[in-house]
Structures are given as structure tokens and as C-alpha cells.
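Appendix C reproduces, verbatim, an entry submitted by the partner laboratory led by Prof. M.T., so that reviewers can inspect both the input and the predicted structure.
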Amino acid sequence: MNNALKISTSHIHHLQVVSLGNRAAHIHSTAVLERRRRTQWDS
């Protein structure tokens, strides 16, 4: 019982870390696209 609870909490923590990583990657790619769009407008 206690062991199963420990596994589920670590699993939830892992999912939070993964979602944070996905969000960071999404923000990064969006920033890169914005920068590309700006350089295209400038040239």
C-alpha cells in the first residue's frame, strides 16, 4: 500500500517534469520562430 503510493507520487512528479520540459521546448521553438520572422521582415 505504502509502496504503491510512493510509486504513484514519483510517477506524478515525473509527469510534471516531462510537461515542464515540453512547455520549455514549446516556448523555445516559439521564440526561435519569432526571431526568424523578425529577421525576414528586416531583410
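Helices lie at 2-42. Additional entries are available on request from the coordinating office.
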